[in-house]
Amino acid sequence: MSIDLEKAKFRTVTIGATAGNVTTYLQPTTLTTVSKRWLILRGRLTLTTDGTVVNRTINLTPFSTGLAQPMEFIGNSGVIPASTTKSLSFGEGANSVGGTLGSGDDYIGLHRPIIIVNNNSLQIAIVNGVAGDSYSGYIEVLEL
Asked: Which residues pair with 41 in a beta bridge?
């Protein structure tokens, strides 16, 4: 696959406040009218949990729409208990769950950019999320 960087466009994809029991599927085709590809560069997701006593994690997975299944597992945050706000950042670097990179967020190091093609997506899920939880954030991509 050849990439024409002259035509590439840097884009910040915003994830608005979403209930913790709702899975988000981000696709290049949901934000553009033509078929595109994304290189996932970096991002940050923040989860605020309600008082329901259950541990949650933020989970990132490239998802194949055509196969209706995950293609690989990128990673997840550390445990986020009830009545807590915690963030998961990801980008270049080494893995550091519970680490002190940046502001002390959990961090997933991407050793290579993740490519999302056409109708495939980046799946954001809150494991054990409930309707009273809320997550939001952003992902920076290079749109090709």
From this structure: none
CATH of the domain at 76: 2.60.120
The whole-number pLDDT of residue 115 equals 86
- How many of the other CB atoms lie within 10 Å of CB of 3? 12
Q: How far apart are CA 108 and CA 73, in angstroms?
A: 11
Q: Can you read off the two tokens belonging to residue 120?
A: 């495939």
Whole-number pLDDT of residue 137: 97
3-state class of 45 per DSSP?
A: strand
User: What's the whole-model pTM score?
Assistant: 0.85
Provide, rounded to the nearest whole percent, the portion of the chain with pLDDT above 70. Answer: 83
Q: Tell me the HSE value of 139 on the side-chain side, using a 13 A CA sphere.
A: 26
Q: Cα dihedral angle (85, 108, 37, 70), rounded to 10 degrees? A: -90
What is the number of domains present in the chain?
1
Q: Is residue 4 part of a domain?
A: no
